[in-house]
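Re: beginner question about structure tokens

> Can someone show what the tokenized structure looks like for a real chain? I only ever see the sequence side.

Sure, here's an example I had lying around. Input first:
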Amino acid sequence: MSAILKEPALDIRPMRTEDLPEILEIERRSYPYPWTQSIFGDCLQAGYSCWVGMRRNVIEGYGILSVAAGESHVLNICVRPEARSKGVGRKMLRHLIAIARRHDADILFLEVRVSNLAARSLYQQEGFNELGTRRDYYPHDKGREDALILARTL
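And the corresponding structure tokens:
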């Protein structure tokens, strides 16, 4: 009889400056136009809600949320390529939703690339609705790509 090895739980903790080299590597492997170290540093310094999801002392995902005046906005959520389709993105998103609620936000916004079908599916499953489109929002190899503006009430 073979034993089935269960994945350890994903532990979510606040992002730290010393996490940035690993985060930047995940960012570079995930996006053709990744955020820079200074953007992440600015988010930490500004006091945004920045989180990492850890398993076996490895960052598997991260998320950044801003909250102000009853509104919240997911600024970035990303999962290490090897950890995708394992629930990491969903757990990170649900954590950000919980943080927004704790800060008494009434609504949560985000933008997603039109071409990112996996993320769009996750957001729809988690109760987000399409509000509109930001034309030419994201850089793209062939110019710019539109973003869908999504929101869900909290």
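Each token stands for a local structural state, so reading them left to right follows the chain. The mean pLDDT is 94.
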